[in-house]
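Field reference: sequence -> structure
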Amino acid sequence: MLDLAETYWPHILFTISVVAGTAAAIHAAMTKEEVRSAIGWVGVIVLSPIIGAGLYLIAGVNRIRRNVISDRRALLQGRIRADFASYDASDELVATQFGQRFKALKTLGDRVTSHRLTTGNSIVALDTGDEAYGAMLKAIGEAERSIILETYIFDRDRIGIRFAEALSAAVKRGVDVRVLIDAVGARYSVPSVLGMLRDGGVNVDVFNGNVIMGLRLPYANLRTHRKIMVIDGRVAFTGGMNIREGFSKELSGSKCSFDTHFKVTGPVVADLVAIAAADWQFASGETIEGEAWTLQTPETEPGRAVVVRAVSSGPDRSLETNHKMLMGAFSVARSSIRIVSPYFLPDRELITALITAARRGVRVDIVVPTSNNLVLVDRAMTAQFDQMLKNYCRIWRASGPFNHSKLLAIDGCWAYVGSSNLDPRSLRLNFEVDLEVLDCPFAEALERRIDLAISSATEVTLEGLRERPFLIRLVERVLWLGSPYL
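Structure field:
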């Protein structure tokens, strides 16, 4: 056999390259919805069938076929909860309180998301890591029945150890606990926190891979970037904050980074449970069910309080849902679009939507950090700034420590907050969760927060960008070409 392989290895290699290259090229042509992406991958595969097919297997497959728990009225065992239906926001309510254009945006959300816009919610911003972690640890300590926690990064540092000990203590009290950490994010600390959680009796798993053996092919480039924690089916925490001490001023001092997390109650909590439960089922194979996971009926009355929708997006059947929601929101804006994003790398469609709004007279302000934790991403996004600045948008470099918050407010009425960055990874490759919030006091509070950041920020100008050395600008453009994989 070895003699045969040694004699005919060129023929064997040629056959493998043809089979692998043909299969990969056909898959790319049949599954990619963007023609530039399809052409790019087919070109790479044709030029180097074996290497190209290998790269495509690792980084090119961007769709997972899976069953998703989408009805948040279910008890997770399948029974319908009619009481949740009474919290659905009607077209008339949205049109009366916020106007016809937001009714149109509601229709878009109804058609592209898996969850309803609901009344009867509350949402509170947690401005710092210390505030968010304190509230989350307190909620874990008060849990009586169930905790489900999904996160991208869960470091084994001083903050991570506090969470691990609190979750282990909850297990000892008889609380049913599930923890899901992304396979990439679990590697951010060595050793990972997985062993500590398991030693404490916590039922923990990793999303889309194995920390010891490696990532799950062919989906190695797909991650859960979601941050969800739900206690007793009653109160939830979500936003942009991972579990790591770098966001705690108590522990990191002046080196502390900033982020914004949110505490929510109401029927939207049931949607967040369903999203996290679907991810847990995908990773572990276990369907969450039983009395501990019975969803709690909201305490507020239907038709009142804050109107919120959970928006889950990712490389499954909810592909680019966040992208579609943002496109719709930019199109209905009349007076202002205010954005805070650590990684601002929108695609051409979103750029066009923003500059079209600016040309209509909408004030478009984009706030990004002066100090960024990902230098390559910062360089790549700077390469796009001129497109925005030439078309009446304004970009600001915020002073102070790195800010990881993802905040968006439109016309002081509509807000979009959560885990999604405005970059290709969040918009096409990651599993994300955001909250669409229709509430003027909440949106106005976000705008005041953004105004405060702008008051001490430095405005980016076309002249300043063009005065920089040519070599720096060239490097930024080269990095921008690779932005989908940064």
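Note: Residues 68-73, 75-80 have pLDDT under 50 and may be disordered.
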